[in-house]
Amino acid sequence: MKCIAAVIICLLLSVTGTAAAAQCVSRTAPALDFTLHCLGTDTPAAANATASASGPTLLIVGGIQGDEPGGFNAASLVASHYTITRGSVWVVPDLNFPSIIKRSRGIHGDMNRKFARLPRRDPEFDTVARIKSIILDPRVDAVLNLHDGSGFYRPQWEDAQRNPNRWGQSVIIDQSDIKAQRFSNLELLARNAVDHVNSELLDTAHRYYLKNTHTSMGDREMEKTLTYFAILHGKPAFGIEASKQFPTHIRAYYHLQILESFMRQMGIQFRRHFPLTKGGVYAAIERDVAMRLYDGRITLPLDDIRRAVNYVPMRKDRPVTFSPLRPLVTLLPQSGSFDVYYGNRRLTAIRPQYFDFDDTLHSVTLDIDGRTVAASPGDIVSVNKVFAVRPLAGYRVNIIGMTRDGVDDEAGLSVRREDFMPGFSLDTGESLYRVEVYRLRQGRDDAFAGMLIMNFGGPQSRQQLAMEAPDAMNAAGTEKKADQAGR
Q: What residue stretches are annotated with the Metallo-carboxypeptidase C-terminal domain (predicted)?
């Protein structure tokens, strides 16, 4: 897993107390554990230091309810596509990852009703305790909890979808102010965020409103929520709702507009690495999704991957290890295969073929379109017309989807896109092809040494992807009439 200057992917250590448990470390989380991403810090040591004069820290939480992809995708984009230049932003995009996978509000009940009292026997006790410890960390100055809510909140009744009982398109506070050293005027901050997002609407019908639940005045349901837990412990906290009437990227667009308003109000400075437009958000969610296996010896681009990928080399002698290159990507074992998920979407099934592994190969030399290229196992290598892998002493090359009669080692062969048989590409656009290298072993089966992905260029450019984003109301699922709970 990468640990770079602007972003450190973090896993919470075991919790024995409160604030001391929030640690940013460079480790791979278990497949369905939630992750903490710390932005605005250069090293884990800096992230774990006490609060400094560099600016405030905002905690963003997504995925507390698994059927709200606008919230958890927006949080994921902050973790992967923003650089914080002043202050810090901590992001948990996948708090309830098991429920995200199942597209369920909560497979063990509503996690956002477990912050007042929770018996230790509850299956989510540890998860709730750990996120509480992050909220209580003295470095955290404010908390945003991202949701997708039913319909459109309106202060007065307009119709069945637009009324005070709905939650969508609202910024929620539990009370008007709080006794806190900073950011104590909750209503002012929330109204400023509402004013900002209403200046950036995709349609005037999408208007946002402030919703004050006045939780301390006897709202028993809201007393159980994450934000009210934060309020009771002196932490400014807000619920952000986008309407479930919209497709995911439109919900995420509105979440990001509001998130950026809060960051600016807090004095957090940032750079965003995509345009904050409908198409820009859609492209940012869909592009450059990938995972690595076995310390990077295999890289699987997931943007356009086939529904199943067969005969993927895996180690005989130990469990599979993987590193997602984006938040929300995970690998789950199934009967004889592995499912790859990106948020609530199952992208592909990996059907393995088991080998001994050999880790001694560090470089492969190729001739590509008349030039010499050095590549490492796990690299994705661009090709225009033709490539050939130079022979490697003690190794053989297997180019998946291409055969030459009587040839066991396909090193040295000139290969063009049309040489591959249909259906053998990694992607549905038939642009990505596997080149596998094996160590020769006398008297034993060959050992897998690494994989290259040869990229002949996708059928659709990133600019086209952004231009062709679905319109605001297309692809929006029909909301269940019973889905009134919202936050």
A: 357-456
